[in-house]
Amino acid sequence: MKLEDIKLAIVGLGYVGLPLAVEFGKKRDALGFDINQKRIAELQSGVDHTLEVSSEELKEASHLRFSADNQELGKSNTFIVTVPTPIDDYKQPDLTPLVKASETIGKVLKKGDIVIYESTVYPGATEEVCVPVLEKFSGLTYNKDFFAGYSPERINPGDKQHRVSTIKKVTSGSTPEVADVVDELYRSIITAGTHKASSIRVAEAAKVIENTQRDVNIALINELALIFNRLGIDTQAVLEAAGTKWNFLPFRPGLVGGHCIGVDPYYLTHKAQAIGYHPEIILAGRRLNDSMGSYVVSQLVKAMTKRKIQVQGARVLVMGLTFKENCPDIRNTRIVDIVKELGEYSIHVDVYDPWVDAEEAQHEYGITPVKVPEQGAYDGIILGVAHHQFVEMGVQKIRALGKPEHVLYDLKYVLSAQEADIRL
């Protein structure tokens, strides 16, 4: 298939799919497909509630159209799948969205078509899980009648500097010829260039270790923070000092959530265990990072007790609910661990986050954020997400939310060591 013959469809229009569809839509005819009719209507009206794409950018993508109609999808011959790949309650990969998307595409798949996956998976998943679904629903044969590719997403929600086109893209295909087509397709929009991997499995593995590496590194810094706190040493001061060496990696302690770092390692460990290997370091890092919410609350409670603040029945304000700053994304946010743990102490919790959709927070976590926190009402304040609104408030306005005697815990190093009562 030649580049000019490609009739492109992007399947799944979330944080990953929409920015990708918009970039293609600036250069070529493309279909943005999603089963959520409400999402389609929103985008057709020129609005993106995820805030990843502005109304102006949607207008610039003049060759992009949106639809939830399978017949429209069937007019395409190249499909890029960008659906979520979460984990379930038992921390096992949940490939349901990926399988459903493959079923939908399989029903309209034709001879010569190419299906490219961007969703994070474990090595082998594309050809072991997705391709059989495509074969079943299409009646076609893999690498004879249709072909596959894998090009892992590298979207960073809320990041306005590192965009789709400015992040180098890994590409791959199920045959050398298809790998060339996939690579050429992405090179048409990626100004940062591409890296053509030797196989789909290599590309899958590369994606899953990107975030696994970050997860393990953050776990190390979190463990160091636990040690330094016991020693009475400011962790940030230590990291700044160590950071003067040219090859010291600038990781910081904190909660590890979101759709990537807190999820992807479980895809790799799942596959490792399936082939008989028990990954020690990766799982140890996951356990440590997942325990940070309870550690934060234990520190807060100890500080309140030292100040003779009644813990049971106390009021605590948690500033921030999203998994990262300046972004409305609440997927896999670990702030909820703090909220739940505070509840175990019979503490009344208010969550304040100007970036969050209240209905979504209630639906996903049973949390209804307050619209405006009360002045002088809180026994404890946890600064959990470094939104620019919180940074701009400064310590005096944040302190004004607390009672005359309260504890201020800064998780994100927004404040100096002198301004906060506790820093991680």
Outline of this structure?
With 424 residues, the protein is an alpha/beta fold.
Can you walk through the features of this model?
The protein has 15 helices and 13 strands. It is of the alpha/beta class and 424 residues long. A six-stranded parallel beta sheet has the order 3-2-1-4-5-6, with helices on both faces. Strand 5 (114-117), helix 6 and strand 6 form a beta-alpha-beta unit. The chain is elongated, with a radius of gyration of 23 Å.
Keywords:
single chain, 424 residues, alpha/beta, 6-stranded parallel β-sheet, 5-stranded parallel β-sheet, 15 helices, 13 strands, 13% strand, elongated
> Radius of gyration, Cα only, in angstroms?
23 Å
Number of helices: 15
Helix/sheet category: alpha/beta
Overall pLDDT metric: 95
- Provide the β-strand percentage band: 5-15%
Element order: H for helix, E for strand = EHEHHEHEHEHEEHEHHHHHEHEHEHEE
Largest sheet descriptor: 6 strands, parallel
Basic shape: elongated
Low-confidence stretches: none
How many strand segments? 13
Strand order of the largest sheet: 3-2-1-4-5-6
| N-to-C CA distance | 54 Å
Helicity range = 40-55%
Strand and helix map with partners:
Elements: E1 8-11, H1 17-27, E2 30-33, H2 37-44, H3 55-60, E3 64-67, H4 70-73, E4 78-81, H5 96-106, E5 114-117, H6 125-138, E6 147-150, E7 169-171, H7 176-187, E8 194-196, H8 200-231, H9 235-242, H10 264-274, H11 280-290, H12 292-306, E9 315-319, H13 335-344, E10 348-352, H14 358-365, E11 378-383, H15 388-399, E12 402-410, E13 422-423
Helix pairs in contact: 5-6, 8-10, 8-11, 12-13
